[in-house]
Amino acid sequence: MLKDLKVTQFLEELSSNSPTPGGGSTAALVAATAASLTCMVFNLTIGKKMYNEATPEIQSEIKLQLEKASRLNAVFIELIDKDSEAFNDVMVAFKMPKGTEEEIVKRQVAIQKGYVVALEVPLKLATTCYGLYASIESAAAYGNKNAISDAGVAALMLQSAIESAILNVKINLSNIKDERFKEKVIAHCNKIINDGITRKEEIMSLVNKKL
């Protein structure tokens, strides 16, 4: 499992001539890093003076967002392997026999299905990533001021993960023939990117004011 590799082992696999792991697994790893940084900010906040002096509502918000970031982190870690597994379906489809007309048709159908499955994983990643912005925003607003830069790094990495995941959606989408499906997915992707940029910039503005 990719998620169980040491950092150096993962990077070695990533730099090999194998198509997996690739950009999709890397995007999931980056998202997990953003979530981990967010959790760190909260864990460096809980129990400290600023936390103890905060209102019960703010304390509750911090705990709630820490739990949410932890849950999303687990999802991102699972998607590191899911992305590679999904693309393997495409490679299997390409290896199907094509000696007869019937085999050619079956192979083409399998390839199309494979690409749909392959894009579903990075699409899920991008969509799930956007949900982490609420936690990062809380970390920037209420977190330990000595870790405010880490909240900023989390926001930057999260947007990178979103846009990286969507690149992997689009590369698979380019091989799909259903134009209506493609238009729908692209519109969804563009919205996630644009909404993400807005959230990232809001968080970075808050972070930079506190530095």
Structure description:
The chain has 211 residues and is mainly α. The protein has eight helices and no strands. Helix 2 (23-43) packs antiparallel against helix 4 and helix 4 runs antiparallel to helix 5. The two termini are 39 Å apart. The mean pLDDT is 94.
Outline:
The protein has 211 residues and is mainly alpha-helical.
User: What is the 3D shape?
Assistant: elongated
CA-based gyration radius: 20 Å
The CATH architecture name reads: Up-down Bundle
Q: Mind telling me the CATH class?
A: Mainly Alpha
Helices and strands, in order, run as HHHHHHHH
Residue windows where pLDDT falls under 50 for at least 5 positions: none
N- and C-termini, Cα separation: 39 Å
Helix residue percentage: over 70%
Query: What's the number of extended β-strand segments?
Result: 0
**What would CATH call the homologous superfamily?**
Formiminotetrahydrofolate cyclodeaminase monomer, up-and-down helical bundle
Tally of individual domains? 1
Count of alpha/pi helices: 8
Instruction: Calculate the mean pLDDT score and round it.
Output: 94
Going by helix content, strand content and strand pairing, the class is mainly alpha
Quick one: biggest sheet?
none
Percent of residues in β-strands: under 5%
The third-level CATH topology is: Four Helix Bundle (Hemerythrin (Met), subunit A)
Topology:
Layout: H1 7-14, H2 23-43, H3 49-52, H4 56-94, H5 101-130, H6 133-142, H7 148-173, H8 179-210
Helix pairs in contact: 2-4, 2-5, 2-6, 2-7, 4-5, 4-6, 5-7, 5-8, 6-7, 6-8, 7-8
Keywords:
elongated; single chain; 0% strand; 211 residues; Four Helix Bundle (Hemerythrin (Met), subunit A); 8 helices; mainly alpha
